[in-house]
Every structure is written in C-alpha cells, then in structure tokens.
Design brief:
By secondary structure, the protein is of the alpha+beta class. The chain has a domain of 78 residues. It is built from seven helices and 23 strands. The chain has an 18-stranded antiparallel beta barrel. A two-stranded antiparallel ribbon has the order 10-11.
Length: 551
C-alpha cells in the first residue's frame, strides 16, 4: 500500500511539474543540405594550382518556444555544418570521435512584445536592412538588444550591439574598453515603393589604425617564419650531433662531446665536407636569437586607437509595372585617436580621419517568364597607408552578404573564395586578417558593372546567367605598406580584376525539395599579377551543386 501511495505521489508531482511545459507551444523548422564543391586554380597561377573538390553537409534546426502570446524564445543550431564528408574528427590524428563537434548554436534570443513595441535580446541573425546585401552582414550571429515598433506601413527602432568584448578577455587592463555599435532606423514599405534610413555610431575603444595593424600582421608572420627556421636549425644540429655521437669511428659519444667540429670545419685535424657541428650550432643559436627578438616585438602588442565613426545608410526601391529598381548608399565618416601614443610598436602618433563611400544601384525589367537586369556597385578603397586618412569601407565594415558574383563577391555560399582567391581574397575578405595576403582586394575597393538574364523555363525550373566586370578602385602602390616585406610596395598594381561569367540552375521537383547547380568562371585580370609585370596568371572556375530539404 505504501509503495502504491508513493508511486501515485511521484506521478502526481511529475505531472504538476510537466503541466507548464505541456502548455508551451514549440515550433520547429530547418533544413538539411548536401552539396559538392569544385575549385580549379583558386590561386590564379600559371602553371595552374591544384584543384580542390569536396562534399559537405549541414543540418540546421530552428526552434521557437512560445511561452505565451507576448513572450517567445528562439534558438537555432547547426549539426555538422560544412563538415566535409570523410572527415571524422576535428583532430585528424585521433582514431575516434572524442573531438567530434556535433552541434554549434548560432542564435539564442528572447522576444517580448509590449504596447510600446517588441524588445528582442540575445544573439540573433538580423534581417537584411536594405535591398542590397552590402555592408553589415546578417549571416553571422550578433549580440544585440533591439527595440522594434511597426505602425501600419512604417516601422522603426534601434539596437545596441556588442561588437567586441575587450574587458574580460585578458588582453586589456582598462575598464569600459569594448567596441560597441549603436543603430537607429526607420523605413516605409508600400506596395510599389519602399524607403529606409539607417544611422549607426561605431564607438570602438580598441581598433588598430591600418598601417599599425599591417605592421602587426608582418610581425606575426615574421615571428612564425623565424620560429620555424629556428626549430629547423636546432633540429639539424641535434640530428647531426646525435649521428656523430653514435659513430664509433669518430670516437663515440664521449669523444664527440668534447671534440666538435671547429670553426674551420675540421675534426681531429682532418678537413670535413659540409657544415661542421660548430657551424650548425652557431646557425641554430643565431636563428633562435632572431626568433626571440621577433617574439619580444610581437608580445609588445599592437598600438590601438579609439574610433568614433558614423555611418548613414539610406535606400529606395520600387517598381513601375514590369520595371523594378533599387538604390542604396553607405557613407562613413569619423576619426581615430591613439589611446597610447607612446606605444613601442607605434608607426606614427597622429590621429586619422575616416571618410569612405559605397553604393549599389540595380534595375530589372520582366517580360513574361524572362527578366533582364543591370547594375553597378562601388566601394571606395585606400592605397595610401602613409597618410592620415582611412578611405576603405572594407576596413570598417566587410561585405559578406553581397551576392553579385559567385567568385568575386560575398561569402553567401561559403565556398572559400573569401580569403584565398589569388592570394589576395575577394571583395568580402577581411583586411584585418592575420593570414598573409588576405584582404588586399577588399582594402583596394571595387567597381562592379554587371548584367544578368533570368528565365523561368518551367514552373519549377529556372535559369540565370550573369556577366560581371570588376576593377579595383585604388589598387596597392608605392604608398601602400607590404606586409610581406615590412616596406611599401615597389610598383603599382593594375586595377583590372577581371571578368566573371556565372550560371545557376534551380529545380524544385517537389515541395520542400530544391536542387541547385551554380558555376562561375573568372577571366583573371592583371591585378592578380600583384605589381609584377612579368608574372604569369591563369583563369579559374568554381562549380557547386546542392540538394536542400526544408521543413
């Protein structure tokens, strides 16, 4: 009897605890994607570099917990995101799954609806602001506290975003030293006309001025190179010494320890071929000394600036019957002041002015199942790292969502062009990356003129072709710091980035199932010769196809 009463009590308590949860509405959505990728001559070299091809997959699940009519909680995770088929571990030296990363949470935020608008807080993926994907990326998670209020066809609001946390990461001894963004916006969305205006203030307490960062990039890669050389030199000496010590004809270990090859490369009065132990040891000591000095320079850190930069971003879009159009502009201005003008690695101690421009216009005309489009995109560049101006908008804000050209712009398809294209990256690469070469094209700015043709062949089958001509706004030259040499470039680079031809085919054989094939062919311009007139380059192409199931 006691056991029955105890069991009844446990079940009752479980039901009481479960009751609130059972009242919770939970919605699931997501996708499964399987795709294959092929790059031919991604380095744009002649002879051609090795081709790259792989398959990968991604399972994405979004969950919305509706607590009540006014409160919701949203999460999303990716399983095996971009995990290449055949790759079993994060650490390929391990024979099991102990480092296998199954899940990666992208977003987690709460929505609270009030009579004064909706408040959203946490890590989120924001919706694209204007009709162009240029500027602030919405593909990656952002830590924001956002207020949004819709009124009929109008909406507005603002958000605070934690761009970088510098107080608790161990790299800063100052309080209130973070990089924050403050944004306000208003927009109107009608049936045939839409317009919006966004204003952002970058309050950055720690950001390096361009040349200081490029110098730090050189210091980092120079240290890595010298450390590798020192390790090799020490290994060569240790290996040769061990061989001599173990050779009976040379007197064995005890004899070798006290009778090394001397400075004249003799051993026991006999001339020896090759570098002697003495020379090898001196080479190792010299290499280790250079690496140590480079390490001290690196440990001193990078001079940081405090930046107050402002961005204004208006857009318009609409249509007149079969003709549609859009235009968006981003203008940035502000200044950078050194927080420590006496830093040991500082190149100069004057403040810098930021002034950069980017815009994108496009028109499209539809007739029947066909549509033609044409557009132009411009981003200002900076090829003078010796002056006191920052004119590259790519240095301030990357263009990861810009989807004009498969190869030359954006990272929307996550194909690996961003950092590696021709050793300089595409227009979306990060100029503040420590990888050698990455971000040079982005820093140079761009001019893209493009035309496209879309055709709905069937109700569930569409074809799109595009031509893109690309030039750099201000390619590197004799006033641009070269992170490979610790000096300015000795020649001016050509501004011709090249012409790209894209093709995409999308088929939806049934509801919630899509198959897409995309290809891009880049006729590389002389920009990729990197200022060397006699350099040889060749063209490259990318192909990929993806099967996606949505639910």
């Amino acid at each position: 009897m006691k056991k029955c009463l105890l069991a009844t009590m446990v079940i009752g308590l479980a039901l009481l605890c479960a009751a609130p949860v059972m009242a919770l509405d939970v919605d699931f959505s997501g996708e499964f994607r399987l795709r294959g990728v092929n790059h031919d001559n991604l380095a744009i070299t002649d002879p051609k570099s090795a081709s790259q091809d792989w398959f990968d997959s991604r399972t994405r699940i979004k969950t919305t917990f509706k607590v009540n009519d006014n409160i919701s909680f949203v999460t999303r995770f990716d399983a095996l995101d971009n995990r290449r088929l055949g790759s079993q571990n994060e650490n390929n030296t391990l024979p099991n799954y102990q480092d296998y990363k199954n899940f990666d949470f992208d977003i987690a935020y709460a929505i609270v609806k009030t009579p004064y608008g909706a408040f959203i807080g946490g890590r989120m993926i924001g919706s694209q602001w204007g009709p162009s994907g240029m500027g602030d990326s919405n593909r990656i998670g952002k830590d924001r506290l956002l207020w949004y209020i819709p009124v009929d066809k109008w909406s507005g609001g603002g958000y605070w975003e934690k761009f970088n946390e510098n107080d608790s990461n161990g790299s800063s001894t100052k309080s209130d030293n973070d990089n924050d963004k403050y944004t306000a916006f208003i927009q109107h969305k009608g049936e045939t006309f839409q317009a919006g205006l966004l204003f952002t203030h970058y309050d950055f307490r720690e950001i390096p001025a361009p040349k200081d960062f490029f110098k730090a990039k050189y210091n980092f890669n120079n240290y890595q190179s010298l450390l590798s050389a020192a390790t090799t030199a020490r290994g060569t000496f240790d290996g040769t010494y061990a061989t001599v010590s173990a050779t009976p004809s040379l007197g064995g270990s005890a004899f070798a320890q006290t009778n090394r090859f001397d400075a004249t490369n003799t051993f026991g009065g006999t001339a020896c071929a090759g570098p002697g132990l003495y020379n090898l040891e001196q080479q190792a000591i010299d290499a280790e000394g250079k690496a140590t000095l480079a390490g001290k320079t690196l440990l001193a850190g990078t001079p940081m600036s405090e930046a107050k930069v402002f961005i204004i971003d208006p857009y318009v879009s609409g249509n007149f019957g079969p003709f549609s159009y859009f235009g968006e502009l981003i203008y940035a201005w502000g200044d950078l002041d050194y927080e420590d003008p006496n830093h040991s690695n500082i190149i100069r101690n004057n403040s810098m002015d930021a002034q950069a421009l980017m815009y994108h216009v496009e028109g499209k005309f539809k007739f029947g199942p066909t549509a033609i489009r044409g557009g132009y995109w411009f981003m200002s560049g900076d090829n003078n790292t010796d002056d006191d101006k920052i004119e590259s908008l790519g240095y301030i804000e990357r263009n990861q969502d810009l989807d004009i050209a498969l190869i030359l712009t954006g990272t929307t398809h996550e194909l690996g062009h961003e950092a590696t294209l021709g050793g300089v990256g595409n227009f979306a690469a990060d100029p503040r990356s420590l990888t050698p070469g990455t971000g040079i094209l982005s820093l140079s700015g761009g001019k893209l003129l493009y035309f496209g043709l879309g055709w709905n062949i069937l109700e569930n089958l569409s074809l799109d072709v595009a031509y893109i001509n690309a030039k750099a706004d201000k390619p590197p030259g004799t006033n641009t710091y070269n992170t490979a040499t610790d000096a300015n470039y000795t020649t001016d680079w050509d501004d011709d980035v090249g012409s790209e031809y894209d093709l995409s085919l999308k088929w939806t054989p049934m509801e919630n199932l899509e198959y897409k094939i995309m290809g891009g062919y880049l006729v590389a311009g002389d920009f990729f010769k990197k200022g060397v007139a006699t350099a040889k380059i060749d063209n490259m192409y990318t192909l990929f196809h993806a099967l996606t199931i949505t639910f």
